[in-house]
Protein: Fungal-type protein kinase domain-containing protein
Organism: Dichomitus squalens
Amino acid sequence: KKYGGRRQATTYAYRHHQARPDHPAFYCLVVKPQWYQVLLSDPTGVVASAETPWDPDDLRLLAAYIYSHYDPPRGHFLWDDTIAWVPGATLDHPPTWKVKVQDQWYTQGQFIFIGEPWGRRTTILRVKDDSGGEIVIKEVYRHHKRRFKEEKILARIHGDGDVLGVVRLQGADHVTTNNETIKCTAKGEETERTKERFALLDSGSRLLDAKTVNELLEAVYDALEVHRTVLLEREVLHRDMSLYNILMYPKWGGVSGRHVSEKTPVSIRDVLLGSKRPAEERFPTCLVIDYDNAAELDAKSGGELNDRTGTPLFIARSVSLGTVLLDHVSICGKPMPRLTGDALYLYTTAYGQERYDRYNDEPGSPKCHGGLPPSLEVDDFDDTRKPRFFHRPEHDVESVYWTMVYALLRAQPAAAPRERYASESSANVWNILLSHRIPAEHSRNVENRGNIINGLRSAWLELFDPTMHDVALLLSQISQHVRSEYAWWTWEGNFQPDHLHEAVQRLILQYLVNHRDNPIKLDPRRPRPTASSSADQGKTRTPTQFSQMQATGGTGTHTRGQVGSGRGSAASRNRGRGKGSRYAANRKGGAKTTAAAGGPSQQSVHSREQATTNEPVANSKRKSSSKPSRSSKRLKTLSGEPVPSVGQGDDDNVDGL
């Protein structure tokens, strides 16, 4: 066969990594009538020995394979004794996990997210402490060249007190076993990854679990307010806002003695009630998580902002392409929207007239959002004089926009008839969204999602049931602000980096006020379909395929009613990396579920990737004649080339880290 058994072995390795977080690395044995081969898999990837003939006079490799299970070579961490599998009381009860963080053991752990096995290999569990309180444990294998670290970013955000709405860290550890830090280097020292573990206090549910449209939009509003607060007050840019990292119905960890920052933003609930709660009571309707791709804007290097970072389905268009957009729509702008009636009164009551006026454009002025759009026609631009691309705050707002589009298109109105199939127009939109990839550098000129964001109002109306037509109009209005490429604007002294946050939030607030007495109830148990009746079901990638995967021993969720923080998926996480690209542009991303830090149900665990759409495939390798050293009984090294696989991890390539 083409792959000589390595494909099957790598598939088993893929599953084993996901099911057993207590096994940082392990060996696989490929047996054929003519030869055998040993594979080593750890978060850096898979490497293999030569295909070794069966020779009764020379079975040193086989002997070394067996011996290494009992006395593994230095650097081969086969066991992590700080996390342990606990069998269920009976076969009907699923196993649980106990986990150690900073010398404290947590028990009754259940998976809520399991990521790609090669790369960061993110695993998230909900556990209980000695008092029965719940927290979330997140563990990752961090590349040794990664510059920004999530625990340090969170410490910066919560430095003068907790900023409610941003996940809070209780503790962080390098994971050690036998007094040795777990470091994986199967593919060489340059690929070294260290196991890190975090205890997180807060959790939440995915936006797809919204019970009403209003509650979903409230969570989006608050996510934007939290994001802009962290941007302006802490100079931190998230860079990976997505369905997996914006949670609703937050579940706040019980803490005592922690100060709450006065910078904690005003929540949409405060705005709608017409009065502000004290900062320590100002819990928002959202939870923003997963800051391991965040950048500190005052860092000396600043090169990170040139990288293409994000989740493919939700990444901003210009970030995906790694270049400033230039087309007839992106160089046009819309003035800052004005609020009317009660929405204006509630806004100024919560934030003050000064904030409202600060973002407004003068009537009749050519300015949009405080800046001047280009005056040239697109055909008159000198393409060689494009502004230099970098990740702007507006790009994170666009990621929130794609997240909102996704969640609202899937939302099933409780009173509307259920669709068995999506309409052709809806199926076309889903095909564009779910097939989006971060392109290779040589193909940076195609961004099919422009067909969605540039759609006419009538196109948006076609996508929704009549009961949701006001939602369609809202998305149409928001699109007109988000689709502009603000890097082309000329800013004259009044640049507000959060101007796009303001515009989108104003439109959401106006909708919420206009519909506060008649919220549209949703049925989160029955999301709307994504495939049309004429589609080839075997080829249509559905959100179930894209965001959920049932795996032996459970899989992660930064999605399905669990807790959320996740990375990649076959449909949604081709991360670019390399020159100007944050992740390998052609990789299939990690498995993640929609409840990154919490969620209502623990009955099922999901991954952001369907096994059938992203099975690991071992590439064929050249044979090597090298043999194990005669001086050791153990597998000191595995000769032969590394075995790459479809879905290899988030940080395979560290250019631009």
